Please model this.
Amino acid sequence: MFCTLGEIVGSPASRLEKPLGGIPGKKCGTIVLSAEELSNCRDSATMQFCANKLDKKDFFGKSDPFMVFYRSNEDGTFTICHKTEVVKNTLNPVWQPFTIPVRALCNGDYDRTIKVEVYDWDRDGSHDFIGDFTTSYRELARGQSQFNVYEVINTKKKMKKKKYVNSGTCWLLGRRCKSVPSLKKVTLLSFSVESEFTFLDYIKGGTQINFTVAIDFTASNGNPSQSTSLHYMNPYQLNAYAMALKAVGEIIQDYDSDKMFPALGFGAKLPPDGRVSHEFPLNGNIENPYCNGIEGILEAYHQSLRTVQLYGPTNFAPVVNHVARYAAAVQDGSQYFVLLIITDGVISDMAQTKEAIVNGAKLPMSIIIVGVGQAEFDAMVELDGDDIRISSRGKLAERDIVQFVPFRDYMDRTGNHVLSMARLAKDVLAEIPDQFISYMKSRGIKPNPAPPPYTPPGHTHHTQI
Model:
């Protein structure tokens, strides 16, 4: 089903019901979408529950319980906002703590009903209902106490059996459930709230984004003087390297106040002695590898193509470690480093690069890899770490800091390069704010307060009350 946000919001009571399609000649059912404007609440709540003496639902073994949390909507319906993990083969589960935005839990309305259902997990998806209870954010915020011990009630069972009491109990953790061992209840074990900061909070507070670019000068790119080369300097249009650099760089440069960017190359023989380098400045100045803006990087890139000899192999570790050295020197949250690697092919130093990334994951840095050309990029997908977190020598990366995209997926068939570059930039930069926030949160770094708005000299603010 396709619709616009306007259709949903503009429907009576902001509730849109439409048929599902996609299979010709078959009725696929309907989908109901309801919209509610989120409050501006930035708090996130972390809580943990345990339960005692839940109903036994499995013929073999006990139960495999999990909880489903629902936020009540303004029209009286409920929306799922969280599911816990399944705790296998127990009637007395202790679930892991979980964190949820307060606006997702109750949209900032502390007295809004929160419904919690408890199920016994089944492999085929036909989970058995154990029972439910209701609470509110205000109640949960009282923390671990007698107020947050809940009887799990199965209404159908209660109607059938006169002697029915409940189907177990849940409570908020704090004292390891010692207070009510004989009751069948769900208990809140712990509850805490903290404010969530956004990427822009840090930028407003003065955190600088330092952008470094590293370009692949290996021979597999082809002779730059020939039109088949990925480095071919066509006087009429940008090559893939220049397009990728411009697309990503023009957005990132806005977050860097001085617009001076280190630009490096790797995999080339350098004049005058022909030594191979995997970490050379594009402008030829080892003491000052900074280029003025994206145009300055492009100019240095074109100059390098005229002076260096494309060679090999394709080593990433030196440029990753280059940026990591700078990031390691500033870990107070005042600066964050983004490395853009543009490459055409198979990586040669995979083990060393993995080690460099695992070490870099502890630092305020992110790595963007754009693959150009038609090569296989399996190794780049592995470095990306979206599916399996990258590791080196048995050590897992503390966080995911790599985003890989193949440039060919973004080439617009109509030849609209502006659209291609916009789509590329959007996907390439999508993970940077989350990676940035994950570093700041892991180090307990809060943003500095934003400076007061600028008031021209002699100009006074008038406030009307």
Remarks:
- The first strand starts at residue 15 and ends at 19.
- The chain is about 25% helix and 25% strand.
- The radius of gyration is 28 Å.
